[in-house]
Write a structure and sequence with these properties.
By secondary structure, this protein is an alpha+beta fold. The protein has 2 helices and 6 strands. 19% of the residues lie in helices and 27% in strands. It has a 6-stranded mixed sheet with strand order 1-2-3-6-4-5, covered by helices on one side. The mean pLDDT is 90. The relative contact order is 0.21.
C-alpha cells in the first residue's frame, strides 16, 4: 500500500492486516510494507494482500523445493489475512501468482482451476523474493456490506 493512494480516506477507514497466527511481522524484515490492508468504504470493503509466500509466523520458509505444499500454504496465509477483514476466498476479485520456475506452471494452474475456478488469475514467471520460495501470490478482494454501520474490523 505504500505506492497506492486514495484521497480523502479517514484513518478509521484503514486497517492493516497481520495474520499473526501464520505470518511474522514485516518489521522483522526492516521493511515498511503491510501484509494486507483493508479499506472500508460506505458500501464495501476493499482488501489488498501484498506478495505472500510459504512462511510461518517466525518468518521461516516452509516446504523447500515442494511446489504443491508451498501453494497450499500460500493460500492458507492469504485466507488468514482475508479473514481479519471479514472476507474469504469467495471475495477475491483477482490473483497475481508469481512462479520461480516455469516447470511449476502446470501444477499451479491445475490446482487453482480445481480449487478456485471462480477467481480470475494471472500466472507470471518472476524472481520471487527469497531463494527458497517457489511461489508468491498477491490479491485484491472486494466485499459488499449490507449494514456498513455494523461493520467493525
Amino acid at each position: 500500500m505504500d505506492a497506492y493512494a486514495v484521497l480523502g480516506l479517514q484513518k478509521a477507514q484503514i486497517r492493516h492486516l497481520k495474520g499473526s497466527s501464520h505470518l511474522n511481522s514485516t518489521n522483522e524484515y526492516g521493511v515498511t510494507f503491510e501484509r494486507g490492508t483493508a479499506l472500508l468504504y460506505g458500501d464495501r470493503c476493499h482488501v489488498y494482500i501484498s506478495g505472500t509466500a510459504s512462511i510461518d509466523n517466525k518468518g521461516n520458509v516452509l516446504y523447500l523445493r515442494d511446489i504443491e505444499k508451498q501453494t497450499v500454504r500460500v493460500l492458507e496465509n492469504i485466507s488468514v489475512l482475508l479473514e481479519e477483514a471479514g472476507c474469504n476466498m469467495q471475495d477475491v476479485a483477482h490473483l497475481l501468482i508469481y512462479l520461480r520456475d516455469v516447470a511449476d506452471y502446470a501444477f499451479v494452474n491445475s490446482y487453482m482451476q480445481a480449487h478456485y475456478p471462480f477467481i480470475p488469475k494471472v500466472i507470471l514467471l518472476a524472481p520471487v523474493c527469497r531463494p527458497g520460495w517457489l511461489i508468491e501470490m498477491e490479491c485484491v478482494a472486494i466485499k459488499e456490506m449490507s449494514n456498513p454501520q455494523f461493520y467493525s474490523f
